[in-house]
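Submission sheet (multi-component)
Chains listed below:
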Amino acid sequence: MLKHKWAWNVVLLVALVLLLPQCQHKMKTTEEKTPEMTEEQRQLMEQERERKAFEETLTAKKYPGIEGEVMESKSLKDINFEFDKYDLTPEARAILAENAKVLRAHPNLNVQIEGHCDERGSNEYNLALGEKRAMSAKLYLIKLGVKAGMLSTITYGEEMPLDSRHNEEAWAKNRRDHFVILSR
Amino acid sequence: MILVAVLLLTLWTLVPSSGQAIIYINIDSPNIRKFYLAFPKIERLGIVPEEIAKHLRETLSQDLTISNLFHIMEEELPQRGVYITEKTVDYNAWAVVGAEFLLSVGLSVEGDSITIEFRLFDVVQGAYIAGKRYKGPAKSVRLIAHRTADEIFYQLTGERGIFQTRIAFVADRTGNKEIYVMDFDGHNVEQVTRNGSINISPAWSPHGKSLLYTSFIRRNPDLYQVFLSTGNSILFSSVTGLNAAPDWSPDGQLIALMMRAKDNSDIYLLKKDGTNPTRLSKSWANEASPSWSPDGKQIAFLSDRSGSPQIYIMDMGTKKSRRLTYEGSYNCSPSWSPRGDKIAFAGRVEGTFHIFTMRTDGTDLRKLTMMGSNESPSWAPNGRYIAFTSTRAGNPDIYIMTADGGTSWRVTDTKSNETEPAWSPWLK
Amino acid sequence: MVHIFVMAILDNIRLMPRRITPRANVYMVDLLPAPKIVTPAPAPVKKTEEKKVETKEIVKKKVVKKKPQVTVSKKAPIKVRKEKPKVNEEQKLQAAINKIKNRVEKRETQQAEEQAQTAITNSLLEIWKTLVDQQVRRFWVIPDTLSDLEHLEAVIIVEIDKDGVVMASRFERSSGNPYYDQSAMRAVTKAAPFPPPPVGEAPVKVGLVFQAQRT
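Outcome: structure written.
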């Protein structure tokens, strides 16, 4: 009899090892089948998965001459603006809707919305315009259910262009809101 | 008989000297033109390095030209080989060639120390009107030339010259924007900030001893103050959001600047130590770029409350604002002339910017620049020149021009971008 | 966290004191022992205005007075001195009437001639004044810095002899701005000598009123 038990153990071990990668999957299916796993636990699992996926999208970013290191996420995309304007275009709203999903899913994040302008016009007035652009996005995101406390704004005016050339193409790129993660 | 004699005498003395009526003639419409100034070769009193004599002549000639007072006569001058002093000057010889004023300069060098003397003569009236001797280290040759120019300017106009003033500005020579200071004519450039961050909008304190500027060092547009004698910067105002476009009140007690209000930017006042921000302009619109009037009773500023950026003036007593600019769709960067009568600003015309001046009552709008895109006007302390940024030669550089836009001179000439000039107040 | 700390240290090192704008030690000595050109202090405006009015009126009055004087003094030689005796009563009367007629006619033509002469003298004077004005104005230069100072007025009295040479000049009134005053005096110095004045008498005194912007 013992001999058989030993063999069973070995077989079980081997089976476990082989089935390990599919463990989660198996667990899920068993969960679905068994109603004892709570909603909360399921949500936690989801969040964990999302968090890990989100981590994959992050890169660290250091701005030369500016204190601190921030994170940028591929999932938080820039929005652009028309010349001299701070109101949101339909494209901007669509992008913000996507960003909102991510932000709602990660309420622990501290996100800063940067407002930027192209180089034309007064440097000082462009600081104000950048601020307005950042605020536009912030207010819209709050409307979409993002927690207000996790959002802050900053203006860089025309001081941090993406493209330093002096033509329409560059200027269009520079008129933007950019999202950075201060902490999480 | 004696009585008669006495009577006659008294009558005689009572009657005006020639007993004759004065025929009055009204003279108006003078010629507003430059004086003819003869500026012969600088007399070398002893052995003098070529460099020093050259710098002296260049600086002095350029200053006198910028003064807009003189046609400088340098060719075919009389009294050659003579060191012209009050003892040797031959007024007739100079009058004959058409000179109205004569400037004689002598230079001597001993080791590292130089001595420069100048004498100014009024040829028309045959008078010696000014003379000074300066002694200093060799490297102060430009400074002495500037002092001489200031002295000459004062002798002929009664006004203080700007030849010893400086200009603060923003340049990206090191790859990022830092604050610099230079002589008004572009020499002696000194780097003031070295933090590798983004530094913008320098503003002088009324005594010229420090600059306020905005820097993003702490990931927020904060206001710093740097003392020029030490190069030390201190954090001056770091309200989260925005601390930018500072302007000291003429009495040095307050600073006007732009700060973030609820969801727009407004004009605020700070005490001279950077504390106690109080909101000045109250509107939902964006306000920027405050500029005090020289009597401290009004502030010019930019506001987009009408839908586009325009210049407004606020009365500090009533706190009421009135609009100044009605032409053009984008008017910004107001700068109040130290003479109090005019405001310079940048206005957009068909896509490019030009410098305009306008009287404070809204009349007499004048366009001063023609070529390139021109921004950030800043007045010299005597209100007769304006420094500004222009792209007329390619990348942005700093220029100065006479207040009527008649003549302009390029001050910086580099491959990097020089912007946001701030002309110093009277120094020392 | 560590790198923020390191950054802070680096920042502080950068902000350590370092001299900008080193002051060059320059010493200065005045070479001008001679006093500045003296201009009189500006007289109170009211008085001089009254003076001006007075002198103008005096000039006018004198001109007016001259006429009767001239005619009076010249009347005398008109007097017919010769009188012929032994004529008819009628002839006498006729002759007398004729004489009176002649006298009146002569007086009238004399008067007309004199009036014409004073008119000519006056217009000659006006022409001369215009010439002087033009000449002074040609040499009156003010720099740009003084051109926007309105209502400055300086008055210089110039004594001109019969050949147009300036014998003396002095300020009757300063504008209050010495540089403006100097520009006026320079104009006078340069403009001399003037065309000879038409008034054949003693040196002429001219008051040159320099007012850049006439209101």
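Remark: Chain A is about 50% helix and 20% strand.
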